[in-house]
């Protein structure tokens, strides 16, 4: 459990580390996007403010009035003395001609009428745009404001593009990520140990009925594991008991056969007793064969290995056929066997139902008195088909009734063996009933008799 626990801890640590790394990257990217958008908004706001302040100075209106027809007059004008810091200032005429640019000579600049911010300012009164330079990794922000005289004042500035901002922040992000990852590894190790240790303790104490799961959420899981464990132990015990019982049951007829064979081999059997010995060997061989057949059949029923053909059939007709087949056996034991009732259709495997009825009838014949009776009846009750086998035989004491369907259990061991019973008949009956989802009821009184009823599931039609 220790190595398995370590593997679980490693998985938890790896996943916590991965989650932490994912969170760091996600939050970093989100913060960069948020702050970059705020940065862009602030730049645009500053450009607007600068443009409006420059417009309110009226210097452009005075220069425009003094300009007349000669743009060269601006070269020595007061515009060239404006202090705008990192902000580039461009003044454009109505036809797109650049009248002034504090970063480059106006005469060397192309017509600006095709610029989107200029076109927008001409029509809307103001305009803005952003143009990126992939080579420099920079964005240039433009804001244009239309003046009262029809010219356009444009201010612009440069800032790092978002990719540049991201890569510039990577060293800091990497350091933070490493610190967080280290912290997550330490915390994850502590948390995983705190989670795993109680579960390991629960696994060690799973056999103890008083042990409580460390977490409330594990109660159904622990209960299921405990139940499965108990069922497994019970199955192992049942298998061991079954093996021991089979060995014991096989030992009796084998011992008898071996003993009689030894008498013949050593010449100790006189001619008059040879027939009796042969009859006993035959009887014990038949009993041995019956035990083996019943054991194999019960094993098949346990593992669902029987070939089943489910269909609708008349339970009364099947019961009547079984009674006819067992009439000779009943007469040999001086038992009156009867069958009555009415048609009742059920869904199931008719061959298995025949085996169930024959086991019930043979059991009633075996545990009966000479001159007794066995009555088989089929009836309908509340939509259910009910098969009943009643006898006036020995009966079963109340304290033993709960065990009669156990394998190899006999109420009267000596009588069962002498009559050829294997102790598996009612166990087979119980299995066949369970396969067909039928309920079994036992009503027995010592000295009066026994009635076993099998109630089958309700059918939609008879």
Give an account of the 3D structure.
Strands 2-1-5-4-3 form a five-stranded antiparallel sheet. A five-stranded mixed sheet has the order 7-9-10-12-11. A two-stranded antiparallel ribbon has the order 6-8. It has 462 residues and is an alpha+beta fold. It has three domains: 2-165, 2-Layer Sandwich (Beta-Lactamase); 237-303, Helix Hairpins, CATH 1.10.287.130; 310-455, Heat Shock Protein 90 (2-Layer Sandwich), CATH 3.30.565.10. The protein is rod-shaped. Helix 5 (219-265) runs antiparallel to helix 6 and helix 7 (315-325) crosses helix 9. It has helices spanning 2-56, 59-67, 116-124, 162-204, 219-265, 271-303, 315-325, 327-332, 350-366, 413-418, 425-435, and strands at residues 88-92, 98-101, 126-133, 138-146, 152-160, 310-314, 336-341, 345-349, 373-381, 384-391, 439-445, 449-455. The mean pLDDT is 79. It has eleven helices and twelve strands. Strand 9 (373-381) and strand 10 form a beta hairpin.
């Amino acid at each position: 459990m220790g190595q398995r626990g370590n593997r679980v801890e490693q998985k938890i640590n790896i996943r916590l580390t991965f989650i932490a790394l994912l969170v760091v990257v996600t939050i970093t990217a989100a913060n960069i996007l948020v702050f970059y958008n705020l940065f862009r908004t602030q730049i645009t706001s500053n450009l607007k403010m600068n443009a409006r302040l420059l417009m309110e100075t009226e210097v452009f209106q005075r220069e425009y009035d003094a300009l007349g027809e000669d743009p060269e007059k601006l070269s020595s004008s007061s515009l060239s003395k404006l202090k705008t810091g990192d902000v580039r200032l461009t003044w454009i005429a109505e036809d797109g001609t650049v009248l002034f640019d504090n970063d480059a000579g106006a005469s060397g600049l192309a017509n600006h009428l095709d610029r989107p911010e200029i076109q927008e300012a001409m029509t809307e009164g103001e305009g803005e745009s952003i143009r990126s330079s992939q080579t420099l990794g920079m964005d240039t922000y433009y804001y244009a404001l239309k003046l009262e005289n029809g010219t356009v004042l444009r201010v612009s500035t440069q800032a790092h593009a978002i990719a540049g901002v991201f890569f510039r922040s990577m060293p800091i992000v990497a350091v933070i990520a490493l610190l967080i990852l280290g912290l997550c590894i330490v915390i994850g190790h502590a948390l995983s140990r705190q989670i795993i240790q109680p579960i390991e303790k629960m696994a060690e104490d799973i056999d103890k009925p008083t042990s409580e799961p460390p977490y409330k959420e594990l109660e159904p899981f622990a209960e299921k594991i405990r139940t499965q464990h108990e069922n497994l132990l019970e199955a192992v015990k049942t298998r061991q008991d079954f093996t021991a019982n089979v060995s014991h049951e096989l030992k009796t007829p084998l011992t008898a056969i071996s003993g009689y064979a030894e008498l013949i081999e050593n010449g100790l059997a006189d001619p008059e007793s040879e027939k009796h010995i042969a009859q006993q060997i035959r009887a014990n061989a038949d009993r041995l064969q019956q035990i083996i057949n019943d054991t194999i059949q019960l094993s098949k029923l346990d593992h669902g290995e029987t070939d089943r053909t489910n269909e609708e059939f008349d339970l009364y007709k099947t019961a009547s056929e079984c009674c006819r087949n067992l009439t000779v056996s009943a007469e040999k034991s001086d038992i009156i066997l009867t069958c009555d009732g009415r048609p009742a259709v059920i869904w199931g495997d008719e061959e298995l139902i025949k085996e169930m009825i024959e086991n019930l009838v043979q059991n009633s014949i075996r545990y009966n008195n000479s001159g007794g009776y066995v009555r088989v009846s089929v009836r309908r009750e509340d939509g259910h088909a009910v098969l009943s086998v009643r006898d006036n035989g020995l009966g079963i004491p109340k304290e033993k009734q709960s065990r009669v369907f156990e394998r190899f259990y006999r109420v009267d061991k000596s009588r069962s063996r002498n009559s050829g019973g294997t102790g598996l008949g009612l166990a087979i009956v119980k299995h066949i009933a369970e396969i067909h989802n039928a309920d079994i009821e036992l009503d027995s009184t010592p000295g009066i008799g026994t009635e076993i009823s099998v109630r089958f599931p309700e059918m939609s039609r008879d």
